[in-house]
Amino acid sequence: MNPEKIKNIGGKINFDELTILAGSKIALITDELREDLLQASLPNEQIIDIGWYPEFSEHGAFRISLIANQNWESPIYTETAKTWDDLEKALDNTLDKVKKT
What we know:
Blueprint: H1 4-8, E1 12-16, E2 38-42, E3 46-53, E4 61-68, E5 77-81, H2 84-96
Antiparallel strand pairs: 1-2, 2-3, 3-4, 4-5
């Protein structure tokens, strides 16, 4: 999980409890996997939010959401991932959806 990708498009990491976990075997860290793992503010009042759903479940998945104008009920884009590699791809896909202007 590379938060530099977020910073490279003008994002500001608000909190990050994900990077320290990145690469760990998921089954060994389920007690650390919660809904609030990373949040970043982006240009044009957008937010990237990454969490694990359901919290603390070995059977859960990462969910990455792109939020605009604080509209948490209707994200612009959402993708899920079960592995670190898939999360990295999901982050790339989400960043491709970020409104640039």
